Amino acid sequence: MTAMLDPNSGEFSAEALRNLQRSRVVSLAFISGVLLFGGVMLFIQQGKLTDQLGLISIMGLVGAVVCVIVSWVMPPQIAPLFPAESPAQTWFLQTLMGMAILEGAAISNLMAVMMEHCQYSLAAAGFLVVVMVLRFPTAARFRTWLQLRQQDSGLT
Predict the structure, then answer these.
(1) What stretch of H or E contains 25?
(2) Which residue has the higher pLDDT, 28 or 5?
(3) Exposed / middle / buried, residue 69 (Cβ in 10 Å: 0-12, 13-18, 19+)
(4) Sign of CA dihedral 133, 145, 9, 23
(5) Structural domain that includes position 87
(6) Above 50 in pLDDT, residue 44?
(7) How many domains does the chain have?
(8) pLDDT of residue 58
(9) Exposed/middle/buried for 52, CB within 10 Å: 0-12, 13-18, 19+?
(10) What are phi and psi of 6, to 5 degrees?
């Protein structure tokens, strides 16, 4: 296994940089898919939004809360089931899983908007997009994650 960070300069290896870029591309795809579908929902629902909660809206709102928590807790638990050749690949896999969970919850809430015209579901979808943007893979976040992995592996 090659080093993901140069010990002297702190620069990413070529493989680490590729996986960071892949994580960014996938994250942008998930975010843009939700935004595009949300834009269509807003166009279709012009003036039809209500504050009444239907069953699908309630399920979407509960799902949004659960999925925000699951998107943080579950990827590190599931990633070991898919052995990666490097820590950078593990990072990519965890990013992919977390974003997919959030995207699913956002799309579910947008479907509730389409079916039940609930403004709270639209707000939940917007909140989930904000969470996705806040989880966007940055170089600083990736570097910190790699450094923590190196420290953990040094302790065992």
Answers:
(1) helix 14-44
(2) 28
(3) exposed
(4) negative
(5) 48-147
(6) yes
(7) 1
(8) 96
(9) exposed
(10) -70, 125
This prediction's pTM: 0.88
Q: Which two tokens stand for residue 60?
A: 């979407």
Q: Is 5 helix (H, G, I), strand (E, B) or coil?
A: strand
User: The tokens 């009444």 sit on which residue?
Assistant: 52
Q: Among residues 30, 49, 40, which one has the least CA distance to residue 131?
A: 30
- Does 76 map to a domain? yes
> What would the two tokens of residue 98 be?
């977390």
Residues belonging to the chain: 156
Residues 6 or more apart from 128 whose CB is under 8 A from it?
A: 34, 64, 67, 68, 102, 103, 105, 106, 109
Any domain includes 90: yes
Task: Tell me the two tokens of residue 86.
Answer: 């490097």
Is residue 8 over pLDDT 50?
yes
The DSSP code sequence of 46-109 is TTT-BS---HHHHHHHHHHHHHHHHHHHHHHHHGGGS--SSHHHHHHHHHHHHHHHHHHHHHHH
Please report whether residue 2 resides in a domain: no
The first and second tokens of residue 55, run together, are 């069953």
